[in-house]
């Protein structure tokens, strides 16, 4: 039994990769220096994997931005608007596709399956002349061999996944595109074969989504062709993020190995393997170490799983692998010296996961007794966290259980609440408001930094925040908005802010994960029972409300968004953790209401992100997600108005769940997708308040009054004016002050013009 890896974080232990890219873009690093820096990171990663005892090390997974874009460049499919004529694109063209240039807008970027990694969407064009511009996997293979003597396993994005993620062609052109690109894949493989490469990993995560019979036949055709073209190469078709949908078709592909995810498959891969067996002539890539979570594995359980698999697959044909590329986890937990030792010891980031892989493979070869010491130490670390008081907060557990048993419903129905709220608020038709944050100017950021470093004491920082709030309350009054916000000046990030104030959350110093391009995020870690410790937003909100008679909306991040943007403990289900967060937020909602705040917005921009890959699992997810939101918001009085906000516009397929949130008012991003969203509301069954963002906050451009009136009129063709709210698309924290004020002024003017007409 051997250990294998599927991909490694590019960003380096200290985000050196990000720094190098950004220095190059800023003109502070020349091209040769960039190549040298990235090569050092790349070789360092390979060496690390060897040191940790990984037998099969992937090569070619490294990138200068995104591996899907690398594939596009390799196949000669750079879109025409970048003015590139054939051959291998230089870095200027490569980065123009990723980030845009003066002449051409960047290619679209979107989420890689259900992860927070974003890839550059390939744009196919009938007139393109695909050709192999460069054999990237071959170069990577040679480099690892020449420089380090490592016999790597080249990785490529599989052709079917690549095409399914691409846009710019009609469904009936798929076959044609396979025909056009297949010879190029064959050429890559033939050249690798000539070089003496033995195994190649082809990533086909698309095989975990639902595919039709015809599509599966296409996949079969692809691999039959490639196997025939490069018979000397053994192909590993690698799947991940879910169970494969058509187990027998996938394991029956004419290749030498199949990689399956046994961590995120809900048990389905394991059950299918037990039921249908596994072809005796194939290698099984067994994804038994979680490539997305950050916790130490239960090695005893995973090695028992390997033993079970070994009953159907000869152990020497099993490769012990992570469930997916380690790209999705941070680099190294051992360096987190500021974390509590009990927590740190229970973590496994990429480096620690390599050790786990090597250990499991060794157990497979030599038996558990050979590594008894390591196993016991690992188990002690897991147990210590499990037994720690942070995971045994009895009041939280009792209250959560009670909470979940109660119905999560507001006292009054929608009509009753609407009447109570109209009587209390007396808002004009088409009320105007904003989504929460106002510009986080350099001044705001530098104040926070001084406070964090201890240069400013709490009193000084709080006074500064109050000054900002006062200034923006005055601006909102002067603009004539109807519902105000305090501006969120005290927050860096909408999840981090709450995580720092709740029990059960921890923050790493270097737990970065690539999100897109050079952008990395550092998700909070939910390691213990989530506990409300003290009011988190009451002081700032009440201060803002004390300055005006207009209603000030309280502003919270919802339970599902906090969950989906964090690393979550794995001893409870996500559902259970969501309810714990809901309980804490409910206490905050109640504290705001008790302090006289009568409108409270609970943002859920990440609700959609949590949707499972498989459609048939959507309902179960949405049910508990909606329930968590309702649990946090349902105890307020009828006249207290609950708002929510979401930053996306694909609504059609989850509109019932969104309606079931039962928020009195929802604001949604729309300005980049007019028509489609509005049609979601066409049947008139959505009976609550709704604000479709009337301008795009992602751009510094100030929209004209007429653009906004046009947008509003279009919406009013399907929505009743009594339902409709006027607001921007999202929070304004990334905008400059002047453009914000001007845009909001135009928004208020547009609203006033329309009020005359309705
Ligand atoms: N209230 C938050 C803000 O205005 C919402 C941010 C978001 O939707 N991502 O910044
Ligand atoms: Zn938003």
TrEMBL record:
Residues 430-752 form the Cobalamin-independent methionine synthase MetE C-terminal/archaeal domain. Its EC number is 2.1.1.14. Zn(2+) 1 binds at residues 645, 647, 669, 730. Its cofactor is Zn(2+). 5-methyltetrahydropteroyltri-L-glutamate binds at residues 15-18, 111, 116, 519-520, 565, 609. The active site is at 698 (proton donor). It comes from the Bacteria. L-homocysteine binds at residues 435-437, 488, 603. GO terms for molecular function: 5-methyltetrahydropteroyltriglutamate-homocysteine S-methyltransferase activity; zinc ion binding. Coiled coil: none annotated. Binds 2 Zn(2+) ions per subunit. Zn(2+) binds at residues 645, 647, 669, 730. Keywords: Amino-acid biosynthesis, Metal-binding, Methionine biosynthesis, Methyltransferase, Repeat, Transferase, Zinc. Transmembrane segments: none annotated. Pathway: Amino-acid biosynthesis; L-methionine biosynthesis via de novo pathway; L-methionine from L-homocysteine (MetE route): step 1/1. It is an enzyme of class 2 (transferase). Signal peptide: none annotated. GO terms for biological process: methionine biosynthetic process; methylation. Pfam families: Meth_synt_1 (PF08267), Meth_synt_2 (PF01717). L-methionine binds at residues 435-437, 488, 603. Residues 4-313 form the Cobalamin-independent methionine synthase MetE N-terminal domain. It catalyses: 5-methyltetrahydropteroyltri-L-glutamate + L-homocysteine = tetrahydropteroyltri-L-glutamate + L-methionine. Catalyzes the transfer of a methyl group from 5-methyltetrahydrofolate to homocysteine resulting in methionine formation. PANTHER family: 5-METHYLTETRAHYDROPTEROYLTRIGLUTAMATE--HOMOCYSTEINE METHYLTRANSFERASE. Belongs to the vitamin-B12 independent methionine synthase family. This is 5-methyltetrahydropteroyltriglutamate--homocysteine methyltransferase. It comes from Paenibacillus sabuli. The lineage of its organism: Bacteria, Bacillati, Bacillota, Bacilli, Bacillales.
């Amino acid at each position: 039994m051997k250990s294998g890896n599927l991909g490694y974080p590019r960003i380096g232990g200290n985000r050196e990769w990000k720094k190098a890219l950004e220095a190059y873009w800023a003109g502070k690093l020349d091209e040769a220096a960039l190549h040298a820096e990235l090569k050092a990171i790349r070789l360092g990663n390979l060496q690390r994997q060897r040191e940790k005892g990984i037998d099969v090390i992937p090569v070619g997974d490294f990138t200068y931005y995104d591996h899907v874009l690398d594939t596009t460049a390799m196949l000669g499919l750079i879109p025409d608007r970048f003015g590139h004529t054939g051959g291998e694109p230089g870095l200027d063209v490569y980065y123009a596709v990723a980030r845009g240039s003066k002449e051409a807008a960047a290619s679209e970027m979107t989420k890689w399956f259900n992860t927070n990694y974003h890839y550059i969407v390939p744009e196919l064009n009938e007139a393109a002349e695909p050709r192999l511009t460069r054999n990237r996997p071959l170069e990577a293979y040679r480099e690892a061999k020449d420089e380090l003597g490592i016999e790597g396993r080249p990785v490529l994005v599989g052709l079917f996944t690549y095409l399914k993620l691409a846009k710019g062609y009609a469904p009936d052109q798929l076959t044609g595109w396979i025909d056009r690109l297949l010879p190029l894949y064959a050429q890559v493989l033939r050249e690798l074969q000539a070089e003496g490469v033995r195994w190649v990993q082809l990533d086909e995560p698309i095989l975990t989504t639902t595919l039709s019979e015809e599509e599966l036949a296409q996949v079969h055709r692809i691999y039959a062709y490639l196997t025939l073209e490069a018979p000397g190469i053994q192909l590993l078709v690698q799947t991940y993020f879910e169970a494969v949908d058509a187990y027998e078709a996938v394991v029956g592909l004419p290749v030498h190995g199949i990689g399956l995810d046994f961590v995120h498959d809900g048990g389905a891969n394991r059950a299918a393997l037990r039921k249908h067996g596994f072809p005796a002539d194939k290698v099984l890539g067994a994804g038994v170490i979680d490539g997305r979570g950050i916790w130490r594995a239960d090695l005893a359980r995973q090695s028992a799983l390997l033993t079970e698999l070994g009953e159907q697959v000869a152990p020497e044909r099993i490769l012990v692998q992570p469930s997916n590329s380690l790209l999705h986890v941070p680099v190294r937990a051992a360096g987190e010296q500021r974390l509590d030792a009990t927590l740190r010891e229970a973590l496994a980031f990429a480096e620690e996961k390599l050790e786990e892989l090597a250990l499991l493979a060794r157990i497979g070869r030599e038996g558990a007794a050979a590594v008894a010491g390591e196993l016991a130490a690992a188990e002690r670390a897991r147990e210590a966290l499990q037994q720690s008081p942070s995971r045994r907060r009895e009041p939280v557990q009792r209250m959560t259980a009670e909470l979940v048993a109660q119905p999560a419903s507001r006292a009054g129905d929608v009509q009753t609440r609407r009447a109570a709220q109209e009587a209390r608020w007396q808002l004009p038709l088409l009320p105007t408001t904003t989504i929460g944050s106002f510009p986080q100017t350099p001044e705001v950021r530098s104040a926070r930094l001084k406070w964090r470093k201890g240069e400013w004491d709490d009193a000084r920082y709080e006074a500064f925040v109050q000054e900002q709030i006062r200034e923006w309350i005055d601006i909102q009054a002067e603009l004539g908005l109807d519902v105000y916000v305090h501006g969120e000046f005290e927050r860096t990030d909408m999840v981090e802010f709450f995580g720092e104030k709740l029990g059960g959350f921890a923050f790493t110093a270097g737990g970065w994960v690539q999100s897109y391009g050079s952008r990395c995020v550092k998700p909070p870690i939910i390691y213990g029972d989530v506990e409300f410790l003290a009011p988190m937003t009451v002081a700032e909100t009440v201060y803002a409300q004390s300055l005006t008679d207009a209603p000030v909306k309280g502003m919270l991040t919802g339970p599902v968004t906090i969950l989906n943007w964090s690393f979550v403990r794995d001893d409870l289900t996500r559902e259970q953790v969501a309810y714990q967060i809901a309980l804490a937020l409910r206490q905050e909602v109640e504290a705001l209401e008790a302090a006289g705040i009568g409108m409270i917005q609970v943002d859920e921009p990440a609700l959609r992100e949590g949707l499972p890959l498989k459609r048939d699992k959507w309902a179960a997810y949405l049910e508990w997600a909606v329930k968590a939101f309702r649990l946090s918001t349902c105890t307020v009085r009828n006249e207290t108005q609950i708002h929510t906000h979401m930053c996306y516009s694909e609504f059609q397929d989850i509109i019932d769940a969104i309606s079931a949130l039962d928020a009195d008012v929802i604001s949604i991003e729309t300005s980049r997708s007019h028509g489609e969203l509005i049609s979601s509301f066409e049947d008139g069954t959505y009976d609550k308040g709704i604000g479709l963002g009337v301008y795009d906050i992602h751009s510094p451009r100030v929209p004209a009054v007429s653009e906004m009136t046009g947008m509003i009129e279009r919406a009013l063709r399907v929505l009743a004016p009594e339902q409709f709210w006027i607001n921007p698309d999202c929070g304004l924290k990334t905008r400059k002050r002047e453009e914000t004020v001007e845009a909001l002024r135009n928004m208020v003017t547009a609203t006033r013009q329309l009020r005359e007409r309705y």
